[in-house]
Design brief:
44 strands; globular
Length: 928
Amino acid sequence: MKKLLLAVILLITFINCTQDKGITDWPEVTKEAKPWTRWWWMGSDVDSVNLTYNLEEMGRAGIGGVEITPIYGVKGRESHYIDYLTPKWMQMLAFTESEASRLGMAVDMNMGTGWPFGGPEITIEDAATKAIFQQYELKGGQELKESVQVKDDKQKEVAYLSKLIAYSSKGEKLDITDKVGSDGKLIWIAPAGDNYNLVALFIGKTFQQVKRAAPGGQGYVLNHFDADAVQRYFGKFDKAFSDNKISFPHSFFNDSYEVYGGDWTPDLLDQFERRRGYKLQDYFPELLGDGATGISARVICDYRETVGDILRENFTQAWTTWAHLHNTTTKNQAHGSPANLLDLYAAVDIPECESFGITDFDIPYLRKDSIRKENDGDPTTLKYASSAAHITGKKYTSSETFTWLTEHFRTSLSQCKPEIDQMFTSGVNHVYFHGSTYSPEDAAWPGWKFYASVDMSPTNSIWRDAPAFFSYITRIQSFLQEGAPDNDFLLYLPMYDIWEGQRGKYFTTFAIHGMRDRLPDFCGAVEQIMANGYDLDYISDRFIQTTTIENGLLKTEGGTTYKALILPAAKLIPLETLARIQKLAEQGATVIFAEQYPSDVPGLSNLEERRAKFTSVMKLFPDIDSFGKVSVNVSGKGKIITGNDYGEILPACGADKEIFVSELGGQLIRRKNATGYHYFFTMLKNKRVDDWVTLGVDAESAMFFDPMTGQKGKAAIRKRNGKTEVYMQLQPGESIILKTFTNTKITTDSWNYYQPAGNQTELKDGWEMNFVESEPAIDETFKLHTLGSWTELGNNNLKRNMGTARYTMKFNFKKPANEEYRLCLGDVRESARVRVNGKDAGTLFAVPFETNIGQLLVNGENTLEIEVTNLPANRIADFDKRGIEWRIFREINFVSITYKDVRFDTWNPVPSGLLGPVTIKELRKIQP
């Protein structure tokens, strides 16, 4: 009996350990978990040998896939160019897909060259279209003397008259289009006794050409509003892939919508009448107003909504449907579009956001460049794409990453790390670098370059240590691609207030640039909610209609649940949306109105009838005279909460805030999984965390996973005042993954906690420095009495080189048993590989440049080696000073971060090497 009992105990122990091992391991690494990169094909001047070389270099470094975008070519290589989608081009694509598959990678491709979609097959009829309005004045009894013809000389060959409407001063509207002859002469006399304003609508063309087009891709930009033109554009891909018997790529990509001035399509008036219920031509004067008056604002809003609907249906949805017929997917940057960004992002398989510029993080030793552009892709903007993915149940939110992070040749991995951390906490989980340029192995340095990229390529010196950064990204994305989103709130995107607030021209777009300036109230609400320790996703009117209630939670059509719906001071709201919100509240939803109730419906059609129904629905909501004090009211099975201060409103709905954000100032994202939740925490300000941190979820146990090192261990947790607390240690610039287990007590090794023991040693004199590699070559060995930039050592080659220097120090050390020691490098320009006594101690590419070395130290003499790699900035500046012609590209041969012609010969030497101070700090292990 005892033997049987022992066997059962051993079996149970084995099963528990096996189960724990599964849930306590790092997630499986897939190619999607690795970072991907946009791969610029200059002139599509590629060959099989160098395709293999490029792919192998990227795969070896840790990149999971490439996204091909052909662009303009290299001067003098014209005979090697391959026209887009020709049999030779398709052969190169097939070879690329085959090689990528061999290497465990995958291939996406831009569905065009450069951007936006377009090319030589786009006829003038299918090209981007614009409205041209001309106005004439007539008195009663008079005949128009001038011809009704377009005045713009560029438009005379293509523009045609669509409508001519006469508006009398008494409000009469007369369609006199058929009174205009083929020569433009108007055969019509204005009725006596009134004055008339005549508005002519000509449908013309933007004449926009594809930007940065590759050979075979030059031509007009597509009219994205024209359903037939869009299908004809897709047809060329059907033919190219079918004729060449090549499988479709992993995914098709569409870059940011940059169709400038394309504000019309031939059937827009018919589409408008069908969708809005009245004729837009009856209100041309109001459409051409600035939107300041009531009717003008409503007409312009209706126009903007109609254009957005047409774009979504005729292009974005049609594109995804077409891709699915070919067993592939779509990846889209909706920003820049004249539409509700949420609905466009939601209409594709992978919504993609974009960073543009650099954020001014307050992190000690974070490299700051004097040449910088403020990042337009802040969290309030990044969340459009991730919100669309979350509410529709899409697995991935991708990002165009590090666009114009700094000036060319000056971007460090240490600058990249906090930017990508912020993207992760904003919902991104599938990073694409912007980007890498195909370059032949034998191309002279700096190789083939595209002007607007961060240059993740083998010819960039940062490539040497980039694999450590790529591993960091992979570890984080392996978690962020698992489970499901777990944000607290849905925030209503008040699109009609936004449209009403965009005065001036009737056509407007939503590019990432200046979004905060254009939408200050909405962005302010987002930041207030997040600063109070809660996270959120945006939701549109369209997706409120498909939202349901499950156990008192709001459940979107993608299956994601939320605690409450917040309306951020919305004034205008469609009747259908309001009625749906009221119904959700009756069924059990918590709805929060901040600052006010909506007061009106948007649009012009049947206005008074809709207003009357709006008033009837509003009567079903609690009667709140003042929003100054938080008020909680029962509405059916749910609650209506009102108030002015988010700090007071949000706790009233029962949501638990994350104090890591609200009190410590960090950033995080939380996702739920089968056994609990997992977090990604990052501290992007000058604040240290070394304390118990209250979580917003309950847990029986928890684990830390360090994405920098791959280490993991059981975290110290406790219950206090009914909440779960975890002991956390983070320095400025650091990040960590936490996995919680709601009902499971896991069995695994504990996480190591340390605190300074007070003793530290600074390694000053006695350094030797020699170069592992350098261009130009430097054979000298330097004995250093103090650490500093190698550009200050007096050797002129050190002011202009790109390379890796090995710093060596021998020192005696007495190591007590069971103690840990941390090596702190201070200021590093720009990344460092560390070895202690010949053993690897890690690659440090971001602040804080620190690593634990206690297990590698020995009693007696120790040898410390630090290989530091600098930026290519000094070498390229020297090239310009010496007049070396490396700008060999046909179109843009490098512009500044402000898109102006630039040379780099005015740059002062960029600090390079190990600047220090280098210290070894004694650590004491603690048990919280």
